[in-house]
Amino acid sequence: MIASLIIAVDGPAASGKGTIAARLAQTYGLPHLDTGLLYRAVGVGVLDAGGSLDDAAFAETVALKLDASHLTDTDRLTSGEAGEAASRIAGYPGVRAALLAFQKAFAAQAGGAVLDGRDIGTVIAPEAPAKLFITATPEVRATRRWKQLTARGQDIAFEAMLADIVKRDERDAGRGAAPMVQAEDAVLLDTTDMGIEAAFDAARRIVEAARAKHGL
Ligand SMILES: Nc1ncnc2c1ncn2[C@@H]1O[C@H](COP(=O)(O)OP(=O)(O)OP(=O)(O)O)[C@@H](O)[C@H]1O
Ligand SMILES: Nc1ccn([C@@H]2O[C@H](COP(=O)(O)O)[C@@H](O)[C@H]2O)c(=O)n1
Fold first, then answer.
1. Is the terminal CB of the chain with fewer CB neighbours within 10 Å at N or C?
2. Residue 139 in contact with residue 15, Cβ under 8 Å?
3. Ligand 1 pocket check for 199: Cβ under 6 Å
4. Which atom of ligand 1 is least distant from the CA of 22?
5. Where does the pLDDT of residue 154 fall: very low under 50, low under 70, confident under 90, or very high at 90 and above?
């Protein structure tokens, strides 16, 4: 029986899933977890400790020691360097296992929750009554991310941004451990031609349909 409103929001980098997830959480009064931040914190933790992103065992020890104090430096965690580091260590099964229980507990809390990431609808909360897979073309996603980072003063060429997005998509979708894939029961939302408001409205309609279907 489905008793609470768990909203699973998955999709590739810079598709707008975090923006939509945060707005849905606000709308329904639910707690929100950006699970990408956990992987970013592990990647940054490895780099700061002088470790190698190729060292799976070391990344796992960093993941096992992760706590809330590692999630506060949002400027650093949302940098391009952190995103790249995150996607490198996210392929290690030991890292994913270390972060699993916390995410599952967050999803299962009374009243429901909103989580965004790559494997929410497939691994973290396969029982979620509302699942969205948010996407947009790589060019549009690279443009969004480029604008976001350059507005913050980061110096990056658009072509390099696009190459990074494409590489990250391939890595996230191609790995063996919890690859990025649309869950069978997720609704696809392509925001290529949508602004933030239109994308959010479409997402809310998907959640409303799921609520009606499950009596939530
Ligand atoms: N539909 C949209 N139209 C235009 N800009 C958008 C749209 N959705 C999100 N954005 C902007 O694109 C950028 C990336 O959005 P967001 O961080 O929500 O993406 P994400 O999928 O969560 O990325 P990440 O892979 O880092 O988790 C932000 O600057 C956000 O304001
Ligand atoms: N559930 C998740 C969330 C994220 N990842 C990996 O982390 C990278 C950064 O995530 P962002 O959402 O902040 O861009 C991402 O590229 C994934 O490799 C993940 O594996 N699972």
1. N
2. no
3. yes
4. 18
5. confident
- Is the full-model pTM beyond 0.90? yes
- Identify the CATH assignment for 5-214 out of 3.40.50.10490, 3.40.50.300, 3.40.50.620, 2.60.260.20: 3.40.50.300
So where are the chain's domains? Answer: 5-214
Q: Write the ipTM.
A: 0.98
Find the length of the chain.
Answer: 216
**Predicted confidence (pLDDT) per residue in 21-71, tens digit:** 999 999 999 999 999 999 999 999 999 999 999 999 999 999 999 999 999
Return the residue whose CA atom lies nearest to atom 22 of ligand 1: 18
